[in-house]
Design brief:
The chain has helices spanning 27-39, 58-70, 74-88; strands at 43-47, 50-55. A two-stranded antiparallel sheet has the order 1-2. Strand 1 and strand 2 (50-55) form a beta hairpin. By secondary structure, it is an alpha+beta fold. The radius of gyration is 17 Å and the shape is globular. The longest helix is centred in the last third of the chain and has 15 residues, at 74-88. The chain contains 3 helices and 2 strands, in the order αββαα.
Length: 101
């Protein structure tokens, strides 16, 4: 029986349902994540042509969280939530579309 994995102390502060070690992933996934980490290149994951997940860099994630904490703009939040629902439905858009009056 193997012992449970150990994680860096900072992982206990994260909100995550699952933590995956990169070395446990297949080469295609490792490459996509390395590109995301090094260049900020985002990846979309599809199932039957429909987007089911996205990967953004850790830095981009932290910046997004900080922005959301700093901007208690309810109208913007409502637009973001509406766009979120559209993306979950398969619609794609650019960030500039959020700010069109």
């Amino acid at each position: 029986m193997s012992s449970p994995p150990t994680f860096a102390p900072w992982t206990s502060r994260l909100v995550a349902d699952r933590i995956v070690e990169l070395s446990d992933l297949d080469p295609v996934m490792r490459k996509a994540l390395a590109e995301c980490e090094l260049t900020g290149q985002r990846s979309l994951f599809l199932r039957n042509g429909r987007i089911v997940a996205t990967v953004i860099s850790w830095d981009e994630y932290l910046a997004m969280r900080e922005t959301m904490q700093l901007v208690p703009d309810l109208e913007l939040r409502a637009r973001l939530d509406a766009r979120d629902a559209e993306v979950r439905g398969g619609d794609l858009f650019g960030p500039e579309e959020l700010f069109v009056e």
